[in-house]
Amino acid sequence: xxxSHLAGRWLCLALSTSGSALAQQAAxxxxxxxxxxxxxxxxxxxxxxEPFRVPTVEVVGKASAAEPPDSASRRDPSGxxxxxxxxxxxxxxRDTAAMLSTAPGVTLQDVGGYGQxxxxxxxxxxxxxxxxxxxxxxxxxxxxxxxxxxxxxAMAERFEVLRGGAGARYGTxxxxxxxxxxxxxxxxxxxxxxxxxxxxxxxxxxxxSASGPxxxxxxxxxxxxxxSSGRFPYLFDPSPTLPGDxxxxxxxxxxxARGAGGLLRLRGELGRGFSADxxxxxxxxxxxxxxxxxxxxxxxxxSGGRGSASLRVTGALPGGVRTNxxxxxxxxxxxxxxxxxxxxxxxVQQLGGVELEGRVLLGGWHALSALxxxxxxxxxxxDTNEASGGDPSWLRASVMAMDELLLWDGQLTVAPSLRxxxxxxxxxxxxxxxxxxxxxxxxxxxxxxxxxxxxxxxxELYVRQGTLLPNPDLRPESALYADAAVVHRSEESFASVxxxxxxxxxxxxxxxxxxxxxxxxxxxxxxxxxxxAEGEWRPHPLLSGAFSYTLTVSSDLQRDERxxxxxxxxxxxxxxxxxxxxGPRWLTGRMxxxxxxxHALTRDGSMSLPGRAFVxxxxxxTFGSRPELxxxxxxxxxxDARAEDFVGYPLPGRAVYLSVSGAFSGTETP
Length: 670
Known about the structure:
Blueprint: H1 6-12, H2 72-75, E1 80-85, H3 96-100, E2 106-110, E3 118-122, E4 130-134, E5 137-138, E6 156-163, H4 167-170, E7 177-183, E8 191-199, E9 203-214, E10 217-228, E11 233-236, E12 248-251, E13 257-271, E14 274-288, E15 301-317, E16 321-337, E17 347-362, E18 366-380, E19 393-407, E20 412-423, E21 426-438, E22 443-454, H5 458-461, E23 477-489, E24 493-513, E25 517-540, E26 543-556, E27 574-582, E28 588-596, E29 599-600, E30 608-609, E31 612-623, E32 628-636, E33 644-645, E34 649-650, E35 655-665
C-alpha cells in the first residue's frame, strides 16, 4: 500500500465507486493440472513456424465439474473473467500492472517508473474497492489499496481478472472486482528457467527458477530482483498559472527503486485422492518518493517487506463432494523516513485465516457449493485514535452458498449465490444471481445482478496520516449492479460486447476539516454505466491480434450543485488496448497501442488530465530446445509521448529494454 502519496490520492479520489460484472468468462487450466514454465516468446512445444502467441481470452459455455472448487471459473461461473497467461507476453510487458491494464474495464494508476506505486481502477471503482489476492491470500493493505509494484511478474503464472461486483464470492472490498495472482507451479520434470533484462535509466531485472520432483512430490524455488535509478526526463511547467509559457525538460530525482525476494512452492499427494499445495513467499523493497512535478520531495523514502504462507488441501469425499481447505497468513511491513510522511515506527499489518469449501453435483442438473471462513486482521500504527482501542484489529468470518441449476439440457444455467460476512463491527449481506444461455451459431448470452460492499479501512477508521484524520463512525460503502453481454467464438476468433450499470451508496469521501485537515464522511452517491468490448483474431498461423475497449460514463449524484451529475475524477470515458503479433519463431514482431481519453482530476471538473496514447514495439528471436534461448528487444513509448498520471506524477518517456531468457529441461520436449 502506498502511504507516502495517500493524502494526494484521497483528496483527488474524492469518490469511491465501482463497476459491475460483464457476462463473459475465460477458460483456464485447472489449478491442480501440471504445467511447464517457459520464459521464452514461444511455447516449448510449439512448431518452428508458430508465431508469438497473443494472450488469449477463450470463452467457455460453463465450467467443467472437474475443476477444483477454488478455480476462478468455478467461483463465479457467469462472471466477466479474463485470464492472462504471463509467459505469453514474453518481453512485451515489464511489470504486473502493465499486463493487467490490457484487460477490458481495467485502468492503471501509475506514479511513474520501475518500482513506483501502481494500482488498478476496475470498472470505475477506486483502487481500494478492488481486491487483489496472491493465490487467494489478500494483498490489500490497511488503506484498502494493493500496490502492484510490490508483486513482480516473475512470480506469476497467470492473472485471473474478475470484473464487476465480487462480494458474493470474495467478500468485502470487491466493489469493482477481484484480481487473483496465480504463482508459478512446479512440474513433474526437472526444469531450470530464467531471464535477465537491462534498459533505460539503469533498469535491471532478473529471475531464476528451478522445479522438479522432490521426495515423491514436486517443488519449485524462484528468486527475483530488480533495480532502477528512475531518472527519466519529463516536461515541467515552471509557471502553471501563465498559459502558453514554454515547458522545460527536467529529470526525476529521488525516484530510484530496488527489490528482491523469493518463492517456494511444494506439491504432493496425500493419498486417498487428496493433494497438498504449500506456498511460501518473501520480498523486500525500497524506493524514493519523488513527489509531484510541482511539489518534489528530495529525501522521502519508503522501505517494506512482506512474508506470506498458505497451505491448500484438495480432494474428494465419499458422495462425490469435492473439497478445498486452505489456511493462510501474511505479514506486511512499511516504514517511511524523510519528507512530510516520516513515521517514528513502521506500520505492520498482519492477517490470517482458514477457509473450507465444498461442491457436489446432484442429479446431473445442479451443483451446490458452500464455503465457511474465519480469520483476523490487525495493524500496528503510530497515530491511532481512541476508538481503535490501541492497535486496530478485528475478526472476519463469512458463510457463502451457491447453486448452479442446469436447465434445458444445459442450454440455460442459473447460478444464485449469497454471502453473509462479519468484518469487525460490520455485518454485510452480498447476494448475486448469474445466468448463461447457449444460443445458436456459437453465440452465448451472460448476465449478472447483485449487491457488493466495502467495509471502511483501518486508515479511514482509526489511523491519522499527516493531515488526513480518521472517522470511526463511517458506514460501509455498497453497490447495486447489473450487466449483460453477448459472446461469439470460433476456432479463429472470439468477440464479446456487453454493458453494465451500478448504483453506489454511502461512498466515502474526504472533505476539509478546519483548520487545514481533511476527514472522511459517508455522504456521496454515484452512478456508473459502461460498455466493454474485446476480441481476438487469428487469420493465419503467423499472424494474430487482440483488442479491448471500455466506455465508462460516471455521474456524481451528490446533491451539491458543484458536483451533481459531473463525471467522477480519474475515470477516463474511453480506454483502448490493441496488439498485433506475427512472424516465425526465429523472428517475432509485436506492436501494442494503449490509449485513454482526457478525464477530470477534481469532482468539480476544474482540473483535468489530457488524453494519452502509448505505442510499444518489440522483436524477439528464439533458438533451440535443450536449452532454449530467447533474445528480445522492447521499445516502450515508441514515440516518446510525455504524460502525467494522478496529480502531477510524470510518466516515463521512450525506454529500451534488452532481455535474454532461457529454459533447460531434463527431458526432451515432446
